[in-house]
Amino acid sequence: MATTPQIAPKDFSCLLYAVEAGIALVTLNRPDRRNALNPRAYAEVEAAFLAVSADDAVRCVVVTGADPAFCSGEDVKEMMTGEKREPRAAIKPQATPAAMAALECTKPVIAAVNGAAMGWGMELTLFADMRIASERASFAELFIKRGLVSDVGGLLRLPAIVGPAKAAELLFTGDTIDAKEAMRIGLVSEVTAHVDLMPRAMALAARIAANPPLALRAMKEGLRKTTYGDPREVGAWAIEQIYRLFDTEDHREGVKSFLEKRAPVFKGR
């Protein structure tokens, strides 16, 4: 998951990036893969949020996905057939760069969740300050079903948003919830008809962008300081655990059973 992007928005191939009237619209754009994330896509997510933070013309950000999904998480098929990951011993434990770029974004972020937000796709919604969901949206912290732990979104942000007990249930089971349940537990602030999602998200972004930008930045920083813990420490721990768990039989079984569309058989090794 670690990336070190040197990518300008004009060179994006996995995202669409546009700025208009003070609003940056970031759209995950691999619809044939349900916007699953490969290394390039992770790098572009990081680059997009770094670009937003550096651009004084941007006052608010809307993140969404090209239909039919918001983001189905990591591209498992590509992960299994692509280059091997670096050995765990060679990995310096640090928070996922894409996660930190999103979490440290200096502008308010709205996630317009248009469909499935699975695994790291749900993480991305949690990095946002606000979430609006289409009636077609669904959410799952699927990491446990792949023999892994959540990234910093699930471990740090989710308990603050829905409460520790509900977060534990979602993290320990990997269950999928629909938009109605997400609204009930406070994960999203609004559920709309699918056709109304982007107009509602952009209208909210416009109301936010009309406010003084220096005060907006200060307000966001204040909320971050008072609501959430240290994402770098938690993120570094999570990445260390994820790379340790990559080496387990249970992780391989979780991925293999997913690709083979069967129930997994976990052995605790």
Notes on the structure:
With 269 residues, the chain is α/β, with parallel strands linked by helices. The chain has one domain (9-194, 221-260): 2-enoyl-CoA Hydratase, Chain A, domain 1. Helix content is 45%, strand content 15%. It has eleven helices and nine strands. It has a six-stranded mixed β-sheet, sandwiched between helices. The protein has a three-stranded mixed β-sheet with strand order 5-7-8. Helix 5 crosses helix 6. The longest helix has 16 residues, at 39-54. It is globular, with a radius of gyration of 18 Å. The model has no long low-confidence stretch (mean pLDDT 91).
Write the layout of secondary structure elements.
Blueprint: E1 15-20, E2 23-28, H1 39-54, E3 60-65, H2 76-81, H3 97-103, E4 109-113, E5 116-118, H4 120-127, E6 130-134, E7 138-140, H5 152-162, H6 164-173, E8 176-178, H7 179-184, E9 190-192, H8 197-209, H9 213-227, H10 231-246, H11 249-260
Parallel strand pairs: 2-3, 3-4, 4-6, 5-7, 6-9
Antiparallel strand pairs: 1-2, 7-8
DSSP strand content: 5-15%
- The neighbouring-strand order within the major sheet is 1-2-3-4-6-9
CATH topology assignment: 2-enoyl-CoA Hydratase, Chain A, domain 1
Low-confidence stretches: none
Q: How do the helices and strands follow one another from N- to C-terminus?
A: EEHEHHEEHEEHHEHEHHHH
Query: What is the averaged pLDDT score?
Result: 91
Q: What is the global morphology?
A: globular
CATH superfamily: 2-enoyl-CoA Hydratase, Chain A, domain 1
Q: Which structural class do you get from the secondary structure elements?
A: alpha/beta
Rg, please?
18 Å
Tally of structural domains:
1
Distance between the termini: 23 Å
Number of strands: 9
Quaternary state reads: single chain
Helix content: 40-55%
Give the CATH architecture.
Alpha-Beta Complex
Text of the CATH class:
Alpha Beta
Total of DSSP H or I helical runs spanning 4+ residues:
11
Largest sheet: 6 strands, mixed
